[in-house]
C-alpha cells in the first residue's frame, strides 16, 4: 500500500505508529484504526490509535479480554463485523460496552499481522456505518497488514525497549492502560502465588464486577499487593 510506504519515510521512528494508523484509515476507507501487539497474550500492548474512538476500542478489548482483535489474533484470520448491531453474541461484554460507549461504531474489521509464522499484532479498523465485506477489500486489508509487519520488524529496536517499555506517545495513556496493568499483574501474581495471566484475569473479573476501572485497580495493587483480599 503506497500510503503505508510513504508513512515509513517518517524521519522520527517514534512518530511512525500514528502515521501508520492514519495511512491505514485512508487506504481502507476507515474512520479510525488501532494496532495492538500480541493482544491475545498477557503481554498485550497498544502500538497506536488514530483517534479517541480507536483508542477506546483497544482499551475495551484489553479490559474485558475479548473482542474482534483478540479473536483475530487467536485464529490468525481476518475478523469482519459488517454491522455491530448483530455481533453481541460473539463478545457480549465488549459488544455491550461498544453499544453503550461508542454507538457511532457500526462496522469493525480486524486483520492479523504475521511475523515468523505467528501473529505478532492485529490491525483493528472501524467505520461509522455498516461495512459489508467483499473479497477485494479483504485482500487489501491483508496486504496492508503484511506491510505493517515489515514496518514493525524494521523499527522494532527503536520502538520497543525491554526496560522502559514502549517509547511512543501518548506515553501516559500507554502507561495507564497497559504497562501499569502488566506491572500490577506481576506483583499480584507473586503475592498470590499464581501466574501473571491468572492474576490479570482476576483483575479483569473484579473490574467488571465492581465497575472499578482496570487502571484504578492496578494503581491500588502497585501501592501494595497485600491490599488485595479474596472475595
Describe this entry's structure for a reader:
By secondary structure, the protein is an alpha+beta fold. Helices cover 53% and strands 14% of the residues. It contains nine helices and five strands; from the N terminus they run ααββααβαββαααα. Strands 2-1-5-4-3 form a five-stranded antiparallel sheet, with helices on both faces. The radius of gyration is 17 Å and the shape is globular. Mean pLDDT is 81; it is low at 164-169.
Topology at a glance:
Blueprint: H1 2-7, H2 16-28, E1 32-37, E2 45-49, H3 52-64, H4 68-75, E3 79-81, H5 92-101, E4 107-115, E5 118-127, H6 135-159, H7 171-192, H8 196-210, H9 214-223
Antiparallel strand pairs: 1-2, 1-5, 3-4, 4-5
Q: Short description, anyone?
A:
The protein is α+β, with helices and mostly antiparallel strands and 231 residues long.
Observed structural traits:
single chain, 231 residues, alpha+beta, 5-stranded antiparallel sheet, 9 helices, 14% strand
Amino acid at each position: 500500500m503506497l500510503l503505508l510506504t510513504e508513512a515509513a519515510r517518517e524521519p522520527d521512528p517514534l512518530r511512525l505508529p500514528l502515521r501508520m494508523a492514519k495511512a491505514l484509515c485512508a487506504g481502507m476507507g476507515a474512520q479510525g484504526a488501532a494496532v495492538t501487539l500480541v493482544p491475545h497474550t498477557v503481554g498485550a500492548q497498544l502500538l497506536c490509535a488514530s483517534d479517541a474512538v480507536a483508542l477506546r476500542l483497544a482499551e475495551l478489548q484489553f479490559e474485558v479480554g475479548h473482542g474482534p482483535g483478540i479473536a483475530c489474533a487467536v485464529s490468525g484470520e481476518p475478523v469482519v463485523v459488517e454491522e455491530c448491531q448483530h455481533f453481541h453474541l460473539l463478545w457480549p461484554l465488549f459488544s455491550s460496552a461498544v453499544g453503550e460507549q461508542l454507538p457511532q461504531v457500526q462496522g469493525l474489521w480486524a486483520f492479523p499481522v504475521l511475523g515468523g509464522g505467528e501473529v505478532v499484532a492485529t490491525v483493528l479498523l472501524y467505520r461509522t456505518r455498516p461495512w459489508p465485506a467483499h473479497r477485494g477489500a479483504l485482500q487489501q486489508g491483508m496486504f496492508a497488514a503484511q506491510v505493517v509487519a515489515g514496518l514493525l520488524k524494521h523499527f522494532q529496536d527503536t520502538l520497543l525497549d525491554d526496560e522502559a517499555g514502549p517509547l511512543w506517545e501518548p506515553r501516559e495513556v500507554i502507561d495507564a492502560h497497559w504497562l501499569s496493568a502488566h506491572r500490577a499483574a506481576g506483583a499480584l501474581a507473586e503475592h498470590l502465588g499464581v501466574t501473571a495471566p491468572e492474576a490479570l484475569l482476576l483483575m479483569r473479573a473484579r473490574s467488571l464486577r465492581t465497575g472499578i476501572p482496570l487502571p484504578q485497580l492496578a494503581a491500588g495493587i502497585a501501592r501494595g499487593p497485600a491490599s488485595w483480599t479474596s472475595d
